[in-house]
Write a structure and sequence with these properties.
- The chain is 56% helix and 8% strand.
- With 647 residues, the protein is α+β, with helices and mostly antiparallel strands.
- Among the domains are: 82 residues, 2-Layer Sandwich (Phosphorylase Kinase, domain 1); 192 residues, Transferase(Phosphotransferase), domain 1; 160 residues.
- The strands form 2 sheets. A 5-stranded antiparallel sheet has the order 1-2-3-5-4, with helices on one face.
- It is elongated.
- The termini are far apart.
Length: 647
């Protein structure tokens, strides 16, 4: 409690007292409920049960800031302190009292607003296996003219403390509790009963005194006719609609098994009107933010933006605005962590609004920025199944949206450089999608580049079992190279794919000749690109390992110039790059295994070339071994003079 300054103490309740506080340093004002606990074990249990409340983020639920234990000297008791945001506009009990004192009828639109927002909130918490257990007018805060907040949840430990319930809970507090709560039994339908009582309390302001309203709430627990008579009066004399009264009849049935659950209520036409009025997504319509609600993002940092996303998770326009703000904040990389937390919020937004192209575009831009930062991946859940599943689902759903698909593939390609993420992606069966996207996107350079990069990563994964789609991709990549032969970057990426496909034996016998030719044409067109040269040499070596036809097609002149001289020229251009030299030696060694081409290799001074390489890279064991193996296959012991090789 030391970090808070108490500004005002409010009326003591059955479970403790609530006070209005200000966080020291002027950081904000809150309400703190101090709940007395009988012993340390009970306090620990109540705290454990309450922690789930920190994960509740809903526009109609008052958010909790933190919980902590505190020894209260005033009552000599250990207290569980629950820190909640404070609306400052009072609560529903005050509204009811003011209207009852003046015998004013509360407008049905206000009741519909509360019903729509409360049903939405109850469905939200019940899906999370959370019960409120204490819905009553004083626990429904008024945020503004159109917004109610449900507050003051109670844990099971506190609500099933029989002694406390008998001694400390005031009779008026029990009025809103379901009949079964007298047996300390609570369920989702108990919350529905309590909400029904709150609505009934609002409807009786002009027709019942406080005492009469209390008697009515008590009477309906035992006699269904009591409710029926009251609803007739409220509909006939007071003027509330038949639809509202019918909903109340379903909410206030004495036996829980006959009572409607919150999820049952949304099927009711009147309740659906309430959901439409409050722009609930449960109505089938999209929620939209009130005017200027997103303005608070303009001067907010990352934590504020993430809190906004949690609060308005069901609002598509809120998520879009928040993601755009996050995208701007990404420029400040020092203050843009932890990445894992941001990714989680992005994934949740994409999953909840899975039909929004805009949210996926903004989300992928941020993911791309996060993954490209030079801070490593220590706190990034690259192998998160939810992340991979979300991105794969989006790529399949928006397969015809070029810009989004390009961005999604780029993010997936960056993720797939992580071995665990690549394995998850492979298990999702996305290799097939990648190949099909590449096949129909030859005119989209950005999409083709991402597809090639992703295809390489997926093919490299040990778990890759979709061999038929690797084989299917061979002619697709061949066509891509032929169409874009003069695009060095794209051809380089495509040749990388051909290398892994050759290595895995996915090139069929009747494809070998055309693949050899396209690889050599790629080398001839882009001899100055080191990565391309490496990939071509490795791919050709892979084909030579399985096919004599490949060797024959290399030694037969193409376009009037021997391909052997092309490979020698590549050596001369990159003779200072040990990796390229090693790959060239590997290519020659595989070619020298075939007697039918050895004579041509000897005519092209291959032996002199190997001797030169042996001498130049004498300290590199891998290169020396490959050169000696080639010379051995050519019948040479490596003693030729090493005059420089020329083309």
């Amino acid at each position: 409690m030391n970090k808070y300054k108490v500004l005002e103490e409010w009326k003591r309740g059955a479970f403790g007292e609530t006070c209005f506080v200000e966080e020291r340093g002027g950081k904000g004002k809150y309400a703190i409920k101090k709940v007395e606990c009988t012993d340390e074990r009970g306090a620990d249990l109540a705290l454990k049960e309450s922690l789930v409340l920190l994960d509740l983020h809903h526009p109609n639920i008052c958010p909790y800031k933190e919980f902590f234990m505190f020894w209260d000297n005033k009552v000599s008791s250990l207290s569980l302190c629950l820190v909640m945001e404070y609306s400052g506009r009072g609560h529903l009990e005050q509204m009811v009292k003011a209207n009852r004192d003046e015998k004013n009828k509360i407008d049905e639109k206000i009741i519909k607003t509360l019903l729509g927002q409360a049903v939405d909130a109850l469905i939200y918490i019940h899906k999370k296996k959370v019960l409120h257990r204490n819905v009553k007018p004083s626990n429904i805060l008024i945020k503004d003219e159109e917004t109610f907040l449900i507050s003051d949840f109670l844990s099971e430990t506190l609500m099933t403390d029989e002694m406390r319930m008998k001694i400390r809970v005031y009779p008026e507090s029990k009025l809103f509790a379901a009949p079964e709560s007298a047996r300390l039994s609570f369920s989702e339908k108990s919350d529905v009963w309590s909400l029904g009582c709150v609505l009934l309390e609002m409807m009786t302001c002009s027709s019942h005194s406080k005492a009469e309203a209390a008697a009515l709430l008590q009477g309906i627990k035992n006699d269904q006719l009591c409710l029926e008579e009251a609803l007739k009066t409220l509909q006939g004399s007071v003027g509330y609609s038949d639809g509202l009264c019918q909903v109340l009849e379903r909410m206030l049935r004495i036996h829980p098994e006959e009572r409607a659950a919150a999820t049952d209520l949304i099927k009711d036409r009147y309740v659906n009107e309430c959901l439409v009025l409050t722009a609930s997504p449960l109505s089938g319509l999209k929620k939209t933010l009130a005017a200027r609600s997103a303005d608070e993002l303009d001067d907010g940092g990352m934590e504020k933006v993430l809190a906004f996303m949690r609060m308005y998770s069901e609002y598509e326009d809120a998520q879009t605005a928040a993601l755009r703000r996050l995208s701007k904040l990404s420029a400040d990389r020092d203050g843009f962590s932890p990445k894992g937390d941001i990714m989680q919020h992005i994934v949740e937004a994409m999953k909840l609004h899975n039909d929004s192209v805009e949210i996926h575009l903004e989300g992928c831009r941020i993911l791309k920025d996060l993954l490209s930062q030079d801070h490593g991946f220590d706190d990034v859940p690259l192998a998160s199944n939810s992340l991979i599943t979300c991105l794969v689902a989006a790529a399949r759903k928006f397969s015809e949206s070029g810009d989004l698909v390009s961005l999604l593939l780029e993010v997936l390609m960056m993720l797939s450089t992580n071995e665990a993420a690549a394995e998850l992606l492979g298990k999702s069966g996305f290799l097939q999608d990648t190949v099909k996207i590449l096949e129909r996107s030859h005119e989209r350079r950005d999409v083709s580049l991402s597809c090639c990069g992703l295809l390489w990563c997926l093919a490299m994964a040990e778990s890759c079992s979709q061999v038929e789609w690797l084989e299917y991709s061979v002619p697709v990549i061949y066509t891509l190279i032929r169409k874009h032969l003069h695009d060095g970057q794209l051809v380089e990426s495509a040749c990388c794919c051909l290398w892994i496909l050759c290595l895995k034996g996915c090139v069929l016998e009747n494809q070998i000749e055309s693949i050899i030719f396209v690889l050599l044409d790629s080398l001839r067109t882009h001899p100055d690109r080191p990565v391309l040269v490496k990939n071509v040499c490795l791919a050709v070596a892979g084909l030579l390992r399985i096919s004599e036809l490949a060797a024959y097609r290399i030694v037969v002149p193409v376009s009037g110039k021997s391909s052997l001289s092309l490979i020698t020229a590549a050596y001369l251009t990159h003779s200072d790059d040990p990796e390229i030299v090693e790959n060239i030696c590997l290519l020659y060694r595989e070619m020298a295994r075939y007697e039918s081409v050895r004579a041509e290799l000897q005519l092209q001074d291959t032996e002199r070339l190997m001797c030169e390489i042996k001498e130049k890279f004498a300290s590199t064991e891998e290169i020396v071994n490959l050169a000696e193996s080639t010379l051995s296959r050519l019948g040479n012991k490596g003693n030729l003079p090493t005059a420089p090789v020329s083309t």
